[in-house]
Design goal:
CATH architecture of the largest domain: 3-Layer(aba) Sandwich
Strand order of the largest sheet: 5-4-3-6-7-9-8
Number of helices: 12
Low-confidence stretches: none
Distance between the termini: 71 Å
Length: about 280
């Protein structure tokens, strides 16, 4: 008979090389038992069923092979929303919440102006769903080239009972309906093939197509910058997440394409992570 305490101890012997070994072991056992992590400490002497212990060992082995927790459990929190994720979608990351924060700051200056927002390359729907939650009166259009990713995003919208969001399949602005938007936001692929060997191990389980871009990681960003102008209202905003060394090049391209009021914002590590611009017609 294996208790919770013993199961966790055995898991740690397999995950010892990971910095997050204790957290990972607890999160996975709590997931198997469908309990909060606090339950593991309060009931450490409780006995696991053979079925639960076998499932736990299987998940620990997957984590030992460096599969991300989010893919193992099929879920990830973003903006306090519990989102379903699969290997067809990127795992939403905390730094992407900076995009949501800045959109809310911009909107708070004039909430009456904002009615229609587009999220390009939505993946699991993280950005679009966060915005739809904060502003139920906004119309949110979310696009992705991957049909399976859109299915996950749509599932997340359904689970969150959000009705002010619709999904369109296609490449960047080509997927948008023929209308004008107050704001367009995107977290596109921005890792270059030259950089990929450095990131590859940590991102090995995530969809390569959502990470890698040509032209030193800037190809998709440049495509969005060029095409978004036709879909923005006068004085509409474009917000793009990019690599921490790409801000200057992104600002330059925005300027070349006629955008104004261009600025980059830093993440918690003091890296310029997103760039904001307006387009006047």
């Amino acid at each position: 008979m294996v208790t919770i305490k013993i199961a966790l101890q055995r898991a740690l012997t397999k995950l010892y090389s990971l910095e997050t070994a204790i957290l990972d072991a607890e999160v996975l056992l709590a997931y198997v038992l469908n309990q909060p992590r606090s339950y593991l400490h309060a009931w450490s002497d409780a006995t696991l069923s053979e079925t639960d212990y076998a499932k736990y060992q299987e998940l620990i082995e997957r984590r030992r092979q460096l599969e991300p927790i989010a893919y193992i459990t099929g879920q990830k929190e973003f903006w306090s929303l519990n989102l379903a994720v699969t290997k067809e979608t990127l795992i939403p990351r905390p730094e992407t919440e900076l995009l949501v924060e800045w959109i809310l700051k911009i909107a708070n200056n004039d909430t009456s102006k904002f009615k229609c927002i587009a999220d390009l390359g939505t993946g699991s729907g993280a950005i679009a769903l966060a915005l739809a939650t904060e502003y139920p009166n906004w119309e949110i259009i979310a696009t992705d080239i991957c049909e399976k990713a859109l299915a996950i995003a749509s599932k997340n919208a359904h689970n969150l009972a959000l009705t002010n969001i619709s999904f369109h399949q296609g490449s960047w602005c080509n997927a948008l309906p023929k209308k004008e938007f107050d704001l367009i936001v995107s977290n596109p692929p921005y890792i270059s093939r030259r950089e990929w060997p450095y990131y590859q191990q940590g991102l090995a389980f995530e969809p390569e197509g959502a990470l890698l871009a040509e032209e030193d990681g800037l190809a998709d960003i440049y495509t969005i910058i060029k095409s978004a102008k036709s879909f923005l209202k006068n004085a509409g905003y474009l917000l793009i997440e990019h690599g921490y060394q790409q801000a200057e090049m992104v600002r330059s391209q925005l300027s070349l394409e006629g955008y104004e009021e261009i600025s980059s914002q830093q993440d918690l590590r003091q890296h310029e992570r997103i760039t904001i611009a307006k387009f006047f017609k």
